[in-house]
Amino acid sequence: MAKSALSRVLTAAAASLPLLAAQAAPAAAARATPAAAVPIAQRGPATAPAASPALSDVLPAPVQVSPDAGATFRLGPLTVIRTQPGSPAARAVGDQLARDLRPATGYPLPVLPVAARRVPSISLLLGANDSRLGSEGYRLSVTRSAVTIRANNPAGLFAGSQTLRQLLPVDIDSPAVVRRSWTVPGGSILDYPRFAYRGAMLDEARHFHTPDEIKAYVDEISRFKVNHLHLHLSDDQGWRIQIDSWPKLTAVSGGAGTGVDGEGPGFLTKAQYKDIVAYAAKRYVTIVPEIDMPGHVNAAQVAYPELTCDGVAPPPRTDTEVGYSSLCIGSETTYRFVEDVIRELAAMTPGPYLHIGGDEAHATPEADYVAFQQRVLPLVAEYGKTAYGWNEITKAPASATAVAQYWDTATTNPTVAAAVTRGTKVVMSPANKAYLDMKYDPSTPLGLDWAAYIEVRDAYGWDPATRVTGVGENAILGVEAPLWSETLRSLDDIEFMAFPRLPAIAELGWSPASTHDWASFSARLGAYGPRWTLQGVNFYPSPQINWG
Ligand code: TNX
Q1: Does residue 406 line the site of ligand 1, with CB under 6 A?
Q2: Is 360 an annotated catalytic residue?
Q3: Domain boundary among 191, 226, 259
Q4: E-strand spans in 152-239?
Q5: What is the pLDDT of residues 524-537, one digit of tens each?
């Protein structure tokens, strides 16, 4: 999915953005203005420095780093990649690593089950026999003759491979051959995640992002050990996933004219969705599908008027208002629809989570909302999935076995805290810290500002386990950085909002709290900028960061 740096420009996103009427915005009158069409090369650092990283220059910060100055490894034309014999998954990680390292080095980097003696080798081996590593951790050791990554599972080999890519000079991200020496700093790294769930989210409903754009984002987020991609597949403006038993959902609400300002048409066929799931799985990213209900359902009701209480189809909506639509809670048709959608979605999703939304259901009376969730949350479990929803689902006792995604900006939420005592697990996405669609500052051409302006330091400057009273480390499954698409169109737009804040959220999810340090993080981030430039990733060159 590599994109040529030269061909990438910052796309003009000519979104004229109506106010988010239901949300009190600090600067709600601000409109999205088009970003200047400046060639990407002029936006980031002008040239990539040829610096060789130190062993600790890794995003997210590893658990333990022990440098050995005398043990520099040199990757050369004879280097081979060796993978655990008998493990197709380890072999696949090795193949992927070879594909990642070949363009810039120009070396053949054969992938073999065993290496010939005295050949410099990069080994990816299973059987680390270290319980601290868990399912995603790894040990990486670098000596003069070998790089060895050991893990209990292939996921750890993949994580270790991403670390190794960052330990090579920034030129390794060049899409064309660079003639230079390719060193890896000596020593060893012990690394494993703080939280099991590190997520990102794309909003397919407000503007449809194509399968290729989703795959590019998978590539970009997986470098930072983000292991879940949540796809918001339905909302008031559009329905973006094929459901065979209700075909008009996509025929009517996935087509031309759908999306904010009528500019985001499209939907994923089941085949495309499964292809994305498989592509992501190879990068150890699990797809989490979301169908939002009982609110945010206008697009479904446009296609099927029987999903309203009066049976009358509402007009299609292309504005950005929220909180006005609701499924008809007392109608059995509603539950037939919901069960069909959950059944089909569960069948095409190998991952454990199925997100049923549940946010901003302002048009659903509270008692109806609870009744709906009491019926629907267990339905998700019936189809073999863990129910997942925005934090409002904690109003329903049935959320005890569910995962709640905390998007509230408040640092106290008694309903969520009470649910935690009943067993609910929480993914932290506080909108004023983790929402990648919030502007960096008032001059950001894209994005919204209802929750906050979020500069890089704000995105990094919080702790998931102390953010909300009564929601401590043990209650937290992880963190997620959602990216809503009201103002976004292209992949360039996505990248501009996600980078460099996504690595901040990824570090909060992966790295031990003891490593939390702005000076360290910002220096590592600044050194990463030239890699994005070489990859053609349109990142925001935040003035808070010294970009190499
Ligand atoms: C709130 S946060 C929403 C979305 C909007 C987003 C824009 C949440 C669960 N719902 O419907 O797209 O704000 O920032």
Answers
A1: no
A2: yes
A3: 191
A4: 182-184, 187-191, 197-203, 228-232, 234-235, 238-239
A5: 999 999 999 999 99
